[in-house]
Amino acid sequence: MRVNRRELFGVSVASATGAILTKPCLATSATSQDPIQLAVVGVRGTGQRHLQQLQGRRDVRIAALCDVDQQMLGEARKVVQNFDGHAPALVEDYRQLLDDPAIDALIIATPNHWHGPLATNAVQAEKDVYVESPCSHVFREGQVLIQVARRFRRIVQHGTPMRSSQVTARAAELLDAGILGTIKMCKAWNCRRHSFPQPAANSPVPKHVNYDLWLGPAPQRPFNVNRFHDNWVWCRDYGNGGIGGDGIHDLDMARWALGVQSHPERITTHGSRIHLSGESDFPDNMTVAYHYPAGKVLLYEERSWTPYGLHGFTNGSVFYGTEGWMVFSRQGYFQVYLGDRGEKGPGMRGGTGQQQHLDNFLDCIRTRQPTTAPPQEAHLSCSLAHLGEIAYRVGHVLDFDASGEAFRNIEKANQLLKKQYRLPWAIPSNA
């Protein structure tokens, strides 16, 4: 069946995500003409960016800011006051937001280990959710998010903004017109230079941080700067390494171009430490091959130690067709090359979709239409990071039952599809 890529990030995914929505779009105290009452959870880095993007929406009110770091909260409140003139409520514990009937929606920009539990709890509290990528820290969390979004009929947007970029829309038109012929293989890469932190001694918890709440579902450990701000991405307790950080965005667009709407059936991974020193639970290089039915292949390459990428981009994808190929980057670029001589075809430079993606979420809160990155699409892409990392940890080729969402006869690998949660922060065992 011919895949229409324009539809893959449009309304055609409604049935797959259970997005036939009938519940009121705003909290019970509001009407469709009232501003959307929004809370931002995690106001450092990405959360700060969202605050800046929200200042252009006059139909939205930032009602609350939530963070376990009091210093971050104070700085974020100043940002909102500067452009909005009002002082949002400052909240340390996100559960206060879920209990507040005036809050319509949450933007979740926390460390990865909080994405799944927090998004699931918010949906169960009948809040709409924008959750940063990856939406899941482990594979099973993506399954649960799909189930609760369907059951509670909530709007969910995944933080993969290139799905809302005009660059992607134009690329979709060309791919659907068959300019590359039949796309049989895509390659994604993540080649950003990083530095892993050198060992550091445990230290007292900063007085302005609620560290127990920061840990949340993660195992109890002493405070260490190497597992906190900026560095948590390299710790499996909280992050997903390069493949689940930057790499997920490029895997998402490669899967979109390949036109696959299922999990891969075989995964092969190689990874090692060949250059970088310092503390990290992840390799500094990784190559993954994902094999799909009908002979389609998705490749992923990661290097954390080079200052250069491929085709002039530290992050990107190449879509290989029978008649040509397209270089695509989430930095807002694509270029088509045709024939055996690689003659230049259509190309485009444009935006990265950040503002449009957030706007799409806010618009969908009112219209109750599916977002451009709904839970099912998010799960299929985030699972690539999880499956690739599991294959690295297990150390051999893994066969995956895409329909049953489990590895075939490899119990060690199946155990890694889920994790243990520190109570009381576990996600529902039966969504």
The CATH superfamily of the largest domain bears the name: NAD(P)-binding Rossmann-like Domain
Stretches where pLDDT falls below 50 for ≥5 residues?
11-24
Side-by-side strand order of the widest sheet: 14-13-12-11-7-10-9-8-15-16
Total of helices: 13
Amount of beta strand: 15-25%
Strand elements, count: 16
User: Order of SSEs, N→C?
Assistant: HHEHEHEHEHEHEHEHHEEEEEEEHHEEH
Rg, alpha carbons:
21 Å
Largest sheet: 10 strands, mixed
Give the helix level as a range of percent: 25-40%
CATH architect. name of the largest domain: 3-Layer(aba) Sandwich
How many domain units? 2
Overall structural class, as computed from helix and strand content, comes to alpha/beta
CATH topology of the largest domain: Rossmann fold
The shape is globular
Would you give an account of this structure?
This protein is an alpha/beta fold. It has 2 domains: 5-163 and 355-374, Rossmann fold (3-Layer(aba) Sandwich); 166-195 and 239-351 and 383-415, Dihydrodipicolinate Reductase, domain 2 (2-Layer Sandwich). It has helices at residues 5-8, 14-17, 46-54, 70-84, 95-98, 112-124, 139-152, 166-176, 211-215, 247-258, 354-367, 375-394, 411-415; strands spanning 36-41, 60-66, 89-91, 105-108, 128-132, 156-159, 183-190, 266-272, 285-291, 297-303, 315-321, 324-329, 333-338, 343-349, 398-401, 406-407. The strands form 2 sheets. It has a 10-stranded mixed beta sheet with strand order 14-13-12-11-7-10-9-8-15-16. The protein has a 6-stranded parallel beta sheet with strand order 3-2-1-4-5-6, with helices on both faces. Strand 9 and strand 10 (297-303) form a beta hairpin. Helix 7 packs antiparallel against helix 12 (375-394) and helix 10 (247-258) crosses helix 12. The longest helix has 20 residues, at 375-394. The chain is globular and about 60 Å long. Mean pLDDT is 92; it is low at 11-24.
